[in-house]
Amino acid sequence: PQPVYLKDYRPPAYRVTHTELKFDLSATDTQVHAALHLERHPDSEPGLPLTLHGEKLSLKHIAIDGQELQEGEYQVDDATLTIPEAPDRLRLETVVVIDPQANTALEGLYLSNGMFCTQCEAEGFRRITYYLDRPDVMATFSTTVIGDREQLPVLLSNGNPVERGELPNGKHFVTWEDPHPKPSYLFALVAGQLEKVEDHFTTMSGRDVTLQLWVESENLDKTEHAMRSLKASMKWDEETYGREYDLDLFMIVAVNDFNMGAMENKGLNIFNSAAVLTHPQTATDGAFQRVEGVVAHEYFHNWSGNRVTCRDWFQLSLKEGFTVFRDQSFSADVNSAPVKRIQDVSFLRTAQFAEDAGPTAHPVRPDHYIEISNFYTLTIYEKGSEIVRMLRNLLGWDTFRKGSDLYFERFDGQAVTIEDFVGCMAEVSGLDLDQFMRWYSQAGTPEIDAHGEYDYANGEYRLTLRQRTPATPGQPDKQPLHIPVRVGLVGTKSGEDLTLTLEGPEGKENLGKDGVLHLREDEQTFVFTNVAEAPVPSLLRGFSAPVKLRFPYGREDLAFLLQNDSDGFNRWDAGQRLAMLALDDLIAAHRNGVEKVMDPRVTEAFRSLLNEPSDDKAVLAEMLTLPSEAYIAEQQPMVDVDAIHAARNFVKQWLAVSLRDEFLSLYRANQSDAPYAPDAEQIAQRSLKNVALSYLMSIEDEEGVELARQQFEAQHNMTDVRAALTLLVHSSRGDIADPALRAFGEKWAHDPLVMDQWFSVQVTRPQSDALDRVKYLMDHPAFSLKNPNRVRALIGAFVGQNRVNFHRLDGEGYKLLSDVVIELNRLNPEIAARIITPLTRWQRFDEQRQALMKAELERIRAEDLSPNVYEVVEKALA
Ligand code: B3K
Ligand code: ZN
């Protein structure tokens, strides 16, 4: 497979002004009739042939303006259909036959539980019909769906239904019209036995929009939260961005087999059932929040993505980074904002930083790819969102909003580039964002080494920041970035933020109590004057840039910030840094085989957290949570999975022993019989209670075990049930865990989303029998490699969350993963190329593990590979 380059972008030879489709649905022989109204693109190079994309299509008929084409007038290969002498304006008709049932890749038209559905982004539409399948070709669509009346009572597509009727042979049809020009990747079709819940939303200009959520009948009781989230998102986008919905109908469909979370098809969003269905008895608080976030994300795409779309797939972060930023802001507004920020940053620092440090590192706007499906990454999404957040912070909200308005107004109905977006921000603010653009082209996580000096005599504080971005594949040399660093100086006597007076080139500048420093050079020193007392700097407040910042904090400094920092995020981060220092010592002790000694300052910091009642329970729960093994691993020069596991357990157990009574009373204080609600207050209470329980269970405290047992048996809601079950299954108390697991499995055998949790809980068990458990469960009748959610629940959870067992020294964990990758490479290349990720990070481990991991990668490379897996494996072994 050959790479595609950004620099090779050319406008298409033709544009499509209108697309008419007719589907005659059948599981194995669906007939797709397409009539494309084409005209030469004014900007295209003259003389280019008309070339359409098409894969796995069986062409039955082709005609131009009613004239059947003869052999020799067109050429077909496995990826294209070319008509060398097409007129400048034409109506091209094709009839193709496709096989949805054989489609296990879940791209294009496929079957899920007997239901027809589509996934076209990025390049799935070419598996449905011959087309100019690229985002800069936008057309209005008219789609007729024909299906069996009994089997497929519901027939959906984008836009508004304009006609329906009966046909011979027990068939019926519905015709849909979408008046908004759209690229093919936003096309959608759904047909099956579905039921709907319906609601309404009145837009800010007073239009009535019908909202429909389509699910299988047994899931009708799991739609309330998604519908509520949808209405909240619509309102939020009107109030926050001034964006109104633009059709009379908005539909969401839940399907069981889906590669990603959901898809923003115009007027007909298709969702992984895991990202839409919730019920207090089946979904955890985390799932409720994820549903809220994904519903919002897909809805927000209607403007950031659909009305204004991407010129080419290199611009993917134009819509994804901006839309993630929008959904994160929405979730922050409707829940606990500091906790949302903490969770988003934890995720970024753990998973995206690891991507940036590995062999598949790429810029937020890549300059080449082999398989675009491999680029729906944490870098494009999460780092992309951080870049937009930096713009918001640099401009301030009001100016940023003006830039956003200008962008939507100027480019409405167009397919544009990241320059177009940033250009609007520069235009409304007058800021020079040229250097800032490097955030889009330079891969890797910038590192800032900070150093501070307090000059008593002159009352000056000098802060020196040095930036460096490590080399990444294909980018050996990096240039300095424009990095906004939000800082405060916390007075060590007062515990208060000191007023910042910055010595600038044009004299003194008053930054108030916290201000943004603009780091643009490799190294810069910032001098603050009138600093009356010795300060501890609070750096990168709110995580103002996606960087790693080092500062030689002493442990007392961190304990001080944990108590006094006015920035909630940095207060949490000080606790994490303090825990990391202790963990580093313990990891070293474990490796050197010496006795582990706990830093008393950590225990004391936790004691104060537990003893001083905090008004923000949600933040407290985050503060009491130790850095994850994955995050700790990211901080180590070489990852020692066993030492990390041992050190973290040691800290956890030490704290549990030292603060047992505190944890017990914390648990009791947050127990509640109130009917379940997924609101911020209850969620905070449950997380606090379950954090406390996890400490007690880490030492298998008798009372703790009893509380876990009772909590499981009370069956109050899935958050509590799952937390208790996980703690029991991960303990040595098989006497309680085994019957609980059995009861859970029997009770929920009919519910795939709950069974996914049943699988995950077992394979994340840290004990050494976990790998056998994985193998055993892979033979379970409910396991299938064809269902991505199940693959993630079993294989993904094992390789991602059970680090000690995946990285077993006999290499059996690696072998299991590569066996799965080899199977999935045939069935579903997109999922195969994602699940392989942990193997690609071999450079981070000791020599023995490196050799084992590389051997498995070589074994995969010897297979007949899909472009997806090929691209990842080649990079990993480069
Ligand atoms: N835009 C989709 C991505 C689906 C692509 C899968 N190959 C999901 C989202 O970001 O909303
Ligand atoms: Zn998206």
From TrEMBL:
It comes from Modicisalibacter luteus. This is Aminopeptidase N. The keyword Disulfide bond does not apply. It comes from the Bacteria. The gene is pepN. GO terms for molecular function: alanyl aminopeptidase activity. Transmembrane segments: none annotated. Signal peptide: none annotated. Its EC number is 3.4.11.2. Residues 444-550 form the Peptidase M1 alanyl aminopeptidase Ig-like fold domain.
